[in-house]
Design a protein that fits this description.
CATH architecture of the largest domain: 2-Layer Sandwich
Largest sheet: 6 strands, mixed
CATH topology of the largest domain: Gyrase A, domain 2
Radius of gyration: 21 Å
Order of helices and strands: EHEEHEEHEEEHEEHEEEHEHHEEEEEE
Number of domains: 3
CATH class of the largest domain: Alpha Beta
CATH superfamily of the largest domain: Probable tRNA modification gtpase trme, domain 1
Shape: globular
Distance between the termini: 48 Å
Amino acid sequence: MASRTSLFDLHVAAGAKMVDFAGFDMPLQYSGIVDEHRTVRSAVGLFDVSHMGEFVLWGPRAGEVVRRLSTNDTERLSDGQALYSVMCREGGGIVDDCIFYRHAVDRYLVVVNASNIAKDWQHVEAVAAGQCRLENVSAATGLIAVQGPRAVGIVESIADRPVADLKSFTFHDAKLAGIPSTVARTGYTGEDGVEIFCESAQAPPLWHALLEAGQAHGVKPCGLGARDTLRLEARLCLYGNDIDETTTPWEAGLGWVVKVEDHDFVGRTALVRQKAEGVRRRLVGFVMRERGIARHGMAIHAPAQGAAGARVGEVTSGTTSPTLGTAIGLGYVADGLASSGSRLIVDVRGKPLMAEVVKGPFYKRAAQPLERG
């Protein structure tokens, strides 16, 4: 039987379509994926992300353990700052992508993907090797994401301290509608917004308070379907699709979170070697230039006079972008075809359809999407 977050009954009462995701009964959609997606882009959406995992590391050597776990350099964090990173195996494969939060010099929180909680806990325990105290607080933690251009104002309207002052990837403690919470300026949608941590039992009253505060501003509850289309438009990786233990940060375009010059971490030796040797494949974003939708697992070929040539990779994520009105996707291809403007052939149910590699995110706030370069 799938696990349930403390918000499960509210999702069912609101008419959400529920699905099993990473072992949790989660809402796929309420009013519809496209409607919820557009609500986040134009107003504000509310997401239950309490299925995510949370580990606390504390003690005098907690900072050292975090530095060994993280490819990114957590030593530059001050109290109240967070950092996106990945954890790797010794061979360089990605254990998970995650966010590290520094609460104090001797206390850190790491948020991991729901599908990886058990595996990540084993990894963290092995790396820590008794050097600091660890606590898996996943089941006791509620997490609500409030995302969209009106998100910060709505949260601030029920907060006992300013929220708009928070910069990206910073956080602070606050009471929201009287509920003790931690508010972080983070998200997974490509929009402005916050993610709110609270005790699991307090998530339902907080959810109600946020819906009430946002009623006049167009707030809607949103499910996993819109979360996926939003993150794909922003070109954010999904673990299990776009990255996993068979991929490395260099291959996945996550080299910006790998600081091999700054510190030692698990996997550093392998990643230094791969960087020197060069990668054979890269994760690219592409736009379909012929009518058809690329889906996870579909083969990607090099073009050969308009037909499909040699297989050069496969699609990891794909959808029709509600914002752009065109089919987009991510996939691994041979390094020689990874530059912007390269033409690819995607095998869409037996039909060879043309696609084009594009630079950067498909959608970016206050910027033109699909910029060539």
